[in-house]
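Bumping with the actual sequence this time:
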Amino acid sequence: MGILKISGALALLLMCQMSWAVCSRVTSNSTLSQAAINAGYTATSWTGACDTCNGRNIGIPGVISLSSGTFQPSGTLLASSSISFLNQGATTAYTANQILFRCNVADADSLYEMYATNGDNTRAGMYAASEVEGAYYSYVRNVAVRLTNLKTGAYFSRFWQGRKLSEEDWFSDGTYIYIPASAFSDVMMEIFRIDSTTYFSNASNRYTYMYSQPHGYTAFKGPGLSANVTEGADSASNYNGWYNVWPGAWSLYSTGVTFVRGATCRVNDFPNVVAIPTITAAQLSQGGSSQAGFNVTIECETGALSSTSQSTTSAANVAMGFLVNQPGAVAAATSLGLITSGGGLTWLLDNHYGAGAGEASGVGIRIYMGSDSALNLLPDLTSYGTGNPRGWYAFRDLTTLVSSGNTDIYTGSFTASLEALGQQPVTPGTVNAQLQIMVSFQ
């Protein structure tokens, strides 16, 4: 009897030891110690990386053009974005100090961020595309997707890779280790054109991405969690913990990204710098301007359609615009009300307008077609088929055909004009602004 009692005590002791060694998912402040709360950490419910739990505004342009001709050789980068784990790793954003997992301090040497493609899905991470290193076939024909962990610099692979977490990533109260959302890595998503059509499901001339399978995942591994998710394990068959303890899903699902195929155009020639002559603040205040002309040449495949209307499965419409690609300039113009009813910008402001000494204020640049009508400017690449109020123009409205052959060449003449905004006093200084010339399907 005594022996049996001792055995029972040993079994109880072993069970107790095992409970201490298991990490847990944190969804409530009640799981946090007072020390963690005092340090500014918090906890709330979160879902995990289910099929449709990815972030939506991931920074990929709203339209991705797929040439029906020769403009996009294999390996052409179609779009890319650095995606924040905190803001876009899940449908509901995390905060940096949000605790996702809790482990015992004894587990400090066994905590990992793991990442892999969606290895058990033929259209989202099972098959590597040999034409682009690290890229995998996608749901869309001629399209491959590559994900990169921005803390390790490694491409996502079908085979799990790990980044060991350290005390720089977590908070410890001496009893527990708390893993916050800030411990996990941001991801670069790149979309490439490939020639191969071995694996795909959609070949439509216009397709808005709604395939509900992530291209890759970010998982957490610690004692008791994601047991078979180990370095080098095949994600096609090793996915313990999905999706409950996997906090990140990387996907195009329901992001609004639309793939359009057809005869397209590309920018061939433009000046790297347009130097506007110096002018005094007094002259600008009195209604004067300083101007410089520049030309843009575009090349179009035969049959390219010039229109700002939204493309359809039978009409791939091509438009042209000037993108204000500096966030500070967009924010400044918006705050000053220099916008149209369609969200386009009416002025190009300094890249750091109002941010420091030495920069002119009360002035901006307007872009004219020739020297006549001022153009609206694009604030971003999220809205297409929205016409002139947004900053899109049918490419033939801004350019003139100069030659035809295997392709068509068009040239447009424009004027950059430095003028007073009329809203505030003009102060002298420098003006440095930046535009990107865009030609895209709508």
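The tokens above came from a reply further down the thread. Confidence is low (pLDDT under 50) at residues 1-20.
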